[in-house]
Amino acid sequence: MPMKRHFEESADTDLKATGLRFLIVAARYNRDITDSLLESALKTLEEAGAERAVVLRTPGAFEIPMVLGHYLKQSSYHAGIALGCVIRGDTPHFDYVAGECSRGVMDVALAKDIPIAFGVLTCNTHEQAEERAKPDETNKGREAALAAIEMAQRFAPR
Q1: Model pTM?
Q2: Which CATH number fits domain 19-155: 3.10.20.310, 3.30.70.20, 3.40.50.960, 3.40.109.10?
Q3: Could you give the residue numbers annotated as active site?
Q4: Among residues 39, 55, 62, which one has the least CA distance to residue 141?
């Protein structure tokens, strides 16, 4: 007997954030890039009808997980969004910051049982970061907001 299959998939056009609350933690480092990511994420949440989006800034990407963890345990957010930009330099610093940021964000999401979309760019050059932060549909802040909406829909109490 063949197995029954069931797939759930959302398209960008199906994503509604009505009644949902989001915490966005955005790094100030590489601010020209992170401001563009943030603006696109906020616009996406607003267009989707989000009830609330709180923005907190950190010095850099390394600090994002700690701020997410602290504020997600105190409030009733449906999802978090991490935004930052780490650009590779001549030393191993990039590897530590990018790796610990991504690991920390996942640790917080699992510990708090709250989805967190990862919109932290890890690029080799500033030009690559600029390409991913263009103010259009390819903006990674927009993509992170869409992922947060989809995950919040999945985990939000019904």
Answers
A1: 0.90
A2: 3.40.50.960
A3: 93
A4: 39
